[in-house]
Write a structure and sequence with these properties.
The protein is mostly helical and 60 residues long. It has a domain at 27-60. 83% of the residues lie in helices and 0% in strands. It contains 1 helix and no strands. The protein has one helix at residues 10-59. The longest helix is centred in the middle third of the chain and has 50 residues, at 10-59. It is flat, with a radius of gyration of 17 Å.
């Protein structure tokens, strides 16, 4: 007998939409405030943030 529960993907899709909005919004804001340099800095900061989050998740 299977005990799998049916799940809805709406919550996950909404979270991914918000994450994409934050990434794109930060890039646009960085570009408008300081051009390509600040936009690049934004993506570098995001890269290290995601790396740190992956390390934290692997530890716990």
């Amino acid at each position: 007998m299977s005990t799998a529960q049916a799940t809805s993907g709406k919550g996950g899709a909404f979270v991914m939409y918000l994450v994409a909005l934050i990434i794109i919004g930060g890039a646009v804001a960085g570009f408008m405030m300081g051009g390509v340099f600040l936009m690049t800095v934004w993506f570098v900061i995001l890269t290290f943030l995601m790396l740190a989050l992956m390390v934290l998740m692997s530890i716990s």
